[in-house]
Amino acid sequence: MDTDRRATAPPANATDAAAPSRSVRVWDLPTRLFHWLAVLLVGVAWISQHFNWMQLHVRAGETLLALVLFRLLWGGFGSETARFGRFVASPLAAWRHLRHVLRREPDTQVGHNAAGGWMVLLLLALLFVETLSGLYVNNDIEDEGPLSEYVSAAFANAISALHAYGWDVLAIAVVLHVCAIGVYALAKGHNLLGPMLTGRKRLPATVRAPARASLWLAALLMGCAALVTALLAMYL
């Protein structure tokens, strides 16, 4: 008897798809601004390096570092869907999610999925290493950084090489990220770009809207990130 009930019960996804839906704000303004400003600044940094516009390259890198530091702070104190503790799942959960990445199903995910959370961490780590190493390389060349004279030539060369090769690794990660967006759109029917533009997403009416942090808090954290970046640029 129990077996018959299990066989005829509708799957969870089908139930979610048939349930009434509503527009839910899943991404706050600071998270969306960080995302698209980071995209813009990575493009500016790449173009300025390609054409040897080093002043522009340095300014783009410094601004990007401030944004990354802000995102790290926002991941600890910001809105619910921006917090690392909210979306970083175990590697096993990420693997289980990827096993069904080609399965077409309704999108009921409020924030980052299990695999997407790890991609966010990877991109943030690469951006942090690339921008921080770029500050040191610039200070070392201009002899501005007080730490430059205290490190060995081998160490300085290693940081320069890390900065140079970091662009290639970052480019590969960005391509994977863009490809994943395409796969989710074509295979699963999930629109990941729309919510990151508008902040809103249609979800079952039973899904609770995520809590949002204050914009004043975001401004305070951004100011702290900018101050730390200025100090690093001066003293690294």
Word description of this protein:
With 236 residues, this protein is mostly helical. The chain has one domain (23-235): Fumarate Reductase Cytochrome B subunit. 70% of the residues lie in helices and 4% in strands. Helix 4 packs across helix 7 and helix 6 crosses helix 7 (114-142). The longest helix has 36 residues, at 153-188. It is globular and about 65 Å long.
What is the count of structural domains?
Answer: 1
Please mark out the parts with pLDDT under 50 across 5 or more consecutive residues, or reply none: 1-17
Order of helices and strands: HHEHHHHHHHEH
Determine the fraction of residues in helical runs and give it as a percent range.
Answer: 55-70%
CATH class: Mainly Alpha
CATH-defined topology? Fumarate Reductase Cytochrome B subunit
**How many helices in DSSP terms?**
10
Structural category:
mainly alpha
The CATH architecture would be Up-down Bundle
Going across the major beta sheet, what is the strand order? 1-2
What share of residues are in beta strands? under 5%
| Rg, Cα atoms, Å | 21 Å
Instruction: Using the alpha-carbon principal axes, give the shape.
Output: globular
Summarize the main sheet.
2 strands, antiparallel
Kindly state the number of beta strands. 2
Distance between the termini: 71 Å
User: What is the mean pLDDT?
Assistant: 88
GO molecular function, one term: heme binding
Subcellular location: Cell membrane
InterPro entries: Cyt_b561_bac/Ni-Hgenase, Di-haem_cyt_TM, Hydrogenase_cytochrome
Keywords: Cell membrane, Membrane, Transmembrane, Transmembrane helix
